[in-house]
Amino acid sequence: MHRREFLHKLSSSAAPVVLGGNWWLRRGLAATQTRLLPGVLSWEGSCLLAADRPVVIEKPIHGAVLNRRQGQLTPEGLQITIQGRAPEGWQVRVNGQIASRNQQAFESPVLLKSHENEVMATAEGPDGQKAEDRIRVVWDRHSFPRYRVAIDDNSFFLRDIAQKQYKSLFDCFYLANLRKLHQKYGTKFVLNIYYTTGEDFNLSQFPDRYRGEWRDNANWLRLAFHAWANDPPRPYQDAPAEKLLHDFDKIAAEIKRFAGEEAYSPTTVVHWAMTRHEVFKPLYERGVRVLSGYFSKNAEGRWDINYRWDDLHSEYISTHDVWKDFNSGIVFSKVDIVLDQTPVEKIVPTLEPLTKNPNTAELMDLLTHEQYFWPFYGNYRPDMVERVETAVRFVTEQGYKPVFWHEGFLGAPLE
After folding, report:
1. Distance, CA of 364 to CA of 144 (rounded, Å)
2. Is residue 13 part of a domain?
3. Which helix (DSSP H) or strand (DSSP E) does residue 183 occupy?
4. CA angle centred on 354, ends 68 and 301, rounded to 5°
């Protein structure tokens, strides 16, 4: 029996149906729940291949995070348009409202009233067949144009301060330059750090005598886990969750010891942005709310630096600010620019188009790496401070405000 014939028999049956195995998982991990009711084919989260489903919500996708740029604000909420497809001749309702039809396509307005919203499309065929599809989407209801700056691979500045025993943290030129940018633009920085640089330094050697200074600057300067060390590459891509969590907990404990709770930030970038998915829920339980990655294709044409998400989700995130995984509660953010890989003259041309696209304009995720600031590093960039300032100045001039991703909802109030 062909699959379409099988689905037709299911849709016209009055008995509940339960299907096992991987058949339900053709569309990856987006689904949070799958339910079948007597006589009704039901999906939540676009589990099946679109071609295998009688009714499917195509836009927005399950887990979409929507803001004022992607709908119409009303006193009651955010009105968006739901688009999908169902067989010709079937009547479709979206959240109870009859949808307009054009051949297989359907369309219907929906009003989002809460932070998280369920959308359900139901369809009934001329012979009584019934099917439905459900998604959940997030309304970033208190959204405003905002940006964050994360700096990966930090360890050299900590070693420098520990070895030279500066009177102030800001006697280190690296932190001094970041403070100048904060004073000029209000920029906030999250420094994602390693436990060790090698045999000559690890976090246990960093003194706690700067705790007061860390506390006094915690409104704009935070420290977060990145990885145990720079090498080997992709340390958590295939590692068990226990390895990443061990390293996370160890580094978090050291940050709180020498810098205090105020300076600690839940991580937003895991080294190489490649992890097994079973680590997401434990990270959420440790306060992680956002994970950023490149979500780009490598030389072989495969999606990479993407937390091992499938093609469907990687492609979506690559063209949108963020997407939420309801299974874990974590929001995944696309890095908009890697400053150490972008010459000064190309920074504004890289960012400016993003400010004009409603799917990428609201949030700016700016990233660079510490090692390029240091003259002894083999790929030292003498203009690193200028690169960061160029990006920060541009987004500031465009009206973006500095935030920490982990505060509220992506730096905006939740309520």
Report:
1. 11
2. yes
3. helix 173-185
4. 120
Same domain as 160, residue 128: no
Q: What is the pLDDT of residues 345-357, one digit of tens each?
A: 999 999 999 999 9
Same domain as 39, residue 56: yes
Domain's final residue, options 108, 139, 170: 139
What average pLDDT does the chain have?
90
**Strand pairing partners for 37?**
40
3-class secondary-structure state, position 147:
strand
**What is the C-alpha to C-alpha distance for residues 377 and 191, in angstroms, rounded to an integer?**
18
Instruction: Tell me the per-residue pLDDT of 205-263, one tens digit each, with 9 for 90 and over.
Output: 999 999 999 999 999 999 999 999 999 999 999 999 999 999 999 999 999 999 999 99
**Residue 250 burial (CB < 10 Å; 0-12/13-18/19+)?**
middle
- Rounded Cα distance, 216 and 224, in Å: 17
Instruction: Check pLDDT > 60 for residue 32.
Output: no
Whole-prediction pTM: 0.88
Q: Tokens for 188, please give them.
A: 């906030």
Which one of 139, 164, 189 terminates a domain?
139
Cα gap 122→130, rounded to integer Å: 7
| pLDDT of residue 21 exceeding 60 | no
| Co-location of 8 and 81 in the same domain | yes
82 with 118, same domain? yes
Range of the domain at 15: 3-139
For the chain, what is the domain count?
2
Q: Which helix (H) or strand (E) holds 194?
A: strand 189-194
CATH number at residue 26: 2.60.40.10
